[in-house]
Design a protein that fits this description.
alpha/beta; 6-stranded mixed beta sheet; 19 strands; 38% helix; rod-shaped
Length: 599
């Protein structure tokens, strides 16, 4: 009943024999074989006289644009054609050579004496599929030119790939600012939406104008991009295309799982993730005291103080023994005070006239003066130009930050798949510690501090510009310098076998080469931001605060707020000095001497 007329291992042409009882049986076989997914298939139908609309307009050929129907009115028996009970389906290869005019002419010479030929067209019947008459007459009157015309009709795409003649396509798209923006119809979500300025609708308007098609866009029944279900089907937009309830969708990233159930057009934009974090702020006040010197300088200074103090104590002990005095145990509490005064830059009035002690104290005095001067000058510099914490620009920065959390909105697209299908340990750890919430909730935690949000780069730009930016242009949100592309990028998904998918891809390629994608992206971000600001009643009118000045990175006016830690340290130092001085007074109280008895 169904015969392959190509001798290659790639199936690109079919000859269908229609029996006198009708097209129901062969049409059902073709539908079950999945002929609908091979839009490039060449089909030749031969057989008894059947109504042409029942043959070439059968539902199994709904995606086929190259099909011919030959039938004869001769009643003589035809050459026997072997029946095929089963149909073996192989991938289509539209690049194979079509039947030559000579082979078609030979086939016709062996057929009946009178021939009628029809051609199937996709959009010739009021932008719908129709049938055109190619030939009706005696077989002996068929010329080589006519036979060549039939062969061309099978091999070429014709005008159907460049002019869809106002054909109406069904478009589905989940609202995803600024990619797809629209207003729902007041009649309900089952009615076409009203498109707004957005990236995908700008591309769709250009494609529809170039291909002469019309479209009706509707939202998906489930507000999801699409996730696999346990029964093998998909939810959301992918599920609608899988069930062929729409012709194609807007903004849908290709993934290995999705490409098994739907087809994709050319990728037109890269989808990247960024990390939103609080803008780097100044270090806490208590850290301002240790920032003037680096860590290794503090370690060396502490080691020198300890070693020098121990050396002074040992030398005083030895010198006391040489001079026959009591030793250094009675003056042990004094060196800490003397060392502290010397390190602060104050001269030390030595109580001993010994020359060797003067050399030691002199060297310690020089060290204290140099260290104190370096510390004070560096402290003033750090208080003038505020030191800030390092920004978060990568996933590694997130994991290295102590007491830090992050999250992402509840996504049903490639954002969550980017982490759930990760194989590297960094993304796995980020996913393990990630929180799932709404975008508004995550931004609220971000503004409170100690929190980051992972979001699409264009969605993040619109959100921050419209809701978290002051009139002065200042924003407390920091964008990471490193972006992470998810899978291949953004494309449009098509139901399998859509005959206009290649034409749409070529038209999108022209738009990309003209540089219009970048322009439309900028315009969509701007329009979306303005609409969100208008809905919120305007930007925040609060002017830049002192925190903005300190976060700017430039010189600022030194105020008492910057010196809080210094005053705290000064107070603690005075308390420690008073306590030490009181202790020395108590230890230096004269002891009563025993009276000598006179004999």
């Amino acid at each position: 009943m169904i015969h392959v007329i190509c001798a290659t291992d790639k199936l690109n042409s079919l000859a269908v024999h229609v029996p006198r009882r009708g097209v129901t049986e062969p049409g059902g076989i073709l539908e079950e074989a999945g002929l609908r997914v091979w839009a490039g298939m060449r089909v030749v139908v031969v057989g008894a006289h059947v109504e042409r609309h029942g043959v070439l307009l059968h539902h199994a050929l709904r995606n086929i644009g190259r099909a011919l129907y030959f039938y004869s009115t001769d009643t003589r028996p035809r050459p026997h054609l072997p029946d095929a009970e089963n149909v073996t389906v192989k991938p289509a290869n539209t690049t194979q050579d079509s039947p030559s005019p000579s082979s078609i002419e030979t086939l016709l010479r062996e057929a009946n004496s009178r021939l009628t030929v029809y051609k199937r067209c996709l959009y010739c019947n009021a932008s719908k599929a129709g049938v055109q008459d190619l030939y009706s007459g005696l077989l002996k009157e068929v010329t080589k030119a006519e036979a060549r015309q039939w062969a061309v009709a099978l091999s070429s795409d014709g005008d159907d790939q460049h002019d869809l003649r106002g054909h109406l396509v069904r478009v589905v798209g989940l609202r995803y600012d600024p990619y797809t923006r629209y207003n729902l119809s007041p009649l309900g979500p089952q009615h076409p939406v009203e498109p707004l300025t957005s990236i995908d609708f700008s591309i769709l308007n250009s494609v529809s104008l170039g291909l002469n098609l019309t479209y009706e866009a509707r939202p998906p029944k489930e507000p999801q991009f699409g996730l696999p279900l346990s029964n093998g089907t998909w939810s959301g937009t992918v599920g609608i295309l899988q069930r062929e309830e729409a012709d194609f969708s807007l903004v849908l990233s290709p993934t290995p799982g999705r490409m098994k159930v739907i087809e994709y057009s050319r990728i037109y934009l890269s989808e990247s993730l960024c990390i939103l974090s609080p803008r780097p702020h100044a270090v806490p006040q208590y850290l301002q005291l240790i920032k003037p010197l680096s860590g290794w300088v503090w370690v060396i200074t502490a080691a020198i103080i300890v070693c020098w103090g121990v050396a002074l104590w040992v030398f005083r002990e030895v010198w006391a023994l040489d001079e026959g005095r009591e030793g250094a145990w009675q003056i042990l509490p004094r060196p800490p005070v003397q060392l502290g005064n010397t390190a602060g830059g104050r001269a030390l009035a030595s109580t001993t006239p010994h020359f060797r002690q003067g050399v030691l104290y002199g060297g310690w005095l020089v060290f204290g003066l140099v260290l104190g001067t370096a510390y004070r000058s560096s402290l003033i510099a750090h208080l003038t130009v505020i030191t800030k914490l390092p920004p978060i620009n990568t996933f590694e920065d997130l994991l290295a930050r102590d007491a830090w959390s992050w999250g992402m909105k509840n996504d049903t697209g490639t954002m969550i798949l980017y982490f759930t299908t990760a194989t590297d340990p960094t993304r796995k750890e980020v996913r393990r510690r990630m929180k799932i919430h709404k975008l508004e909730e995550g931004m609220k935690h971000l503004m409170e501090g100690g929190y980051s949000v992972i979001e699409d780069i264009f969605v993040a730009q619109v959100t921050v510009s419209s809701r978290y930016t002051y009139e002065s242009g200042y924003t407390p949100v920091h964008f990471s310098t490193s972006n992470y592309p998810t899978f291949a990028g953004l494309a449009w998904g098509f139901r399998k076998g859509a005959p206009f998918r290649r034409a749409v891809s070529l038209r999108k390629q022209r738009v990309m080469e003209a540089g219009l994608i970048d322009y439309w992206t900028h315009e969509a971000v701007r329009a979306t931001t303005e609409d969100m600001i208008r809905e919120a009643g305007g930007r925040r009118s609060v002017q830049a605060s002192a925190q903005q000045d300190t976060e700017g990175g430039g010189p600022v006016v030194l105020s008492l707020q910057h010196l809080q830690g210094i005053f705290y340290l000064l107070g603690l130092g005075l308390l420690a000095a008073i306590a030490t001085f009181a202790r020395e007074l108590l230890q230096a109280r004269p002891r009563p001497r025993p009276c000598r008895r006179l004999c």
